[in-house]
Amino acid sequence: MESTTENVVPLRQTAAQRRAMPDFRDIAEALADKEKVCRRPVPMRVYDPKTLTEYYVGSPCKSTIASVCPACAEQNRYLRIIQCREGWHLDEEPVNEVNEPTQQQQDLLACRSDLFNVYQAAKQDGDQQRMDDAAEDVAGIDKQLRATGLRKSLPPLEVSGKKRRVRSTRRRQDAPNLPRKKVAKTTIGREFAGKFRPSMMLTLTMPSYGHVHRDGAVNSKGEPCGDGSPIDPDTYDYARAARDIVHFAGPLDRLMQNLRRAVGWNVQYYGVVEPQRRGAPHIHMLIRGTVPRELVKQVIDATYLQVWWPHFDPEEEIYPGDKVPVWDDRKLTFVDPDTGEVLPTFDERQECLATVKNPKPAHVVRFGTQIDRKTLRGVLGNSEEAGRHIGYITKYLTKSIGEILEPPNTRTAVHYDRLHAELQHVPCSKTCPVWLRFGIVPAGVNEKTVPGRCRGKVHRRDLLGLPGKRVKNSRQWSGKTLPDHKAERAEFVRQLLALVGIVKPDTSHLQVTPVEPGDQAVPPRDHLIMSSISQRLAWKAEYNRALLDAGPAALQQLSAMRQAA
User: Fold this and answer.
1) Nearest to 289 by CA among 201, 371, 374
2) What is the pTM of this model?
3) Do residues 439 and 323 lie in contact, with contact meaning Cβ atoms separated by under 8 Å?
């Protein structure tokens, strides 16, 4: 007797087997990762003023972490590599185009100047009505000026009477002096033998806070690098380590200022900040041009940052436990929980420093002195070594700090927890709520402020004290921003398609805005992912067809056009 499919009894699946099956979202995200499409698109509303129609598209999430969105993270890393490569070994000064003010802008400014005089005259006469009318007219002109394209902010009608703090610029006695030259506008390094223009790679670290373990873990070369945990946690200087983390960006800016004054030209840099195993930040910097090794060491030794804040030593905490200042709705500030006395503000405590005869800074930040051939080296442009260094400093840009600092053992995990706990007692800015534990009301507080709890990046456990941007570069590194590099890539593809007769429609008139909360017409994320995948496949087919139809000669011409642009 022949068996038929109708007589086959399906096997019974367990609950675990059913849970192991992928759902639609899993398949869609896997295909999105394969086609390099964002797996977490953000819905955006597109309005076409020509046809009076609207529709929705998925905008990339622009995440820089591969575990969140691999496509967006790799796209960001690729743009960073292009930006890094284009600016490192430039042999010509980057061109910064400046648009001349238009006649419309000049006319609007002339009208604003007349209204400014009217406002000042009304202020002298005490005519509040005329002042309000003039201020309203100025607000309208300011709106028109910003619509024409304006950089920076406009000067206000009222000048703040806040007194400017003046501090002495005298160098510390324990810091060596530096040569001081007039900084030229050039950003290109010295040329050797008429054809070589090498550049440098520099690694900066923070000083030692105590001896750490160097057994167990190894780096990519197989060399022992240790797990970063202190040998003696009781003598490890956690307080200084936490303060150096908070103010890490300050001495970096001072270092480049000192280096430019010492060499006499506008040194450009590109740096990536990463944490060491011990939790302290360090930065790999690419410097355009070459500087003598001894001069670099001298500049590092002479660079420091003095933090002129009210002192925030751990033993000076007035409210270290659960009893913290409370918000007073009548006085609109924080008061002592026992006496109800109003606490001094940050600015008031800052003013008290001016009355001290020989004030001492709250903290002084310095770099470490580990400068050798591994941390400072010269690199020739367009060489294999240059590409290897660029890949090295951008390797971890797609990983989060928590993934980089994965503790290999228990003692390292305890070390990271203790460092994070110390960071909770270090204020990160003048608006940080941690100041309330020292009896100081920070700037910008309200009834929602929680004393001692700051949402700043430096206080987050997943970042472990690495605040701010991970990539730091000078303004004239390549003369372009990341959006500029992205636009260049899009223009390259557009020109390639135009060579074979594929002209993309003009979308400059479309108005793209975020969707409003409660919009019922917004498609679900699954639909946005499918639409993005379909669009990506269509674009890839057009691009591949253009490559085949263009041929080598057309690609050479297009490459020359791209370099000329």
Assistant:
1) 201
2) 0.84
3) no
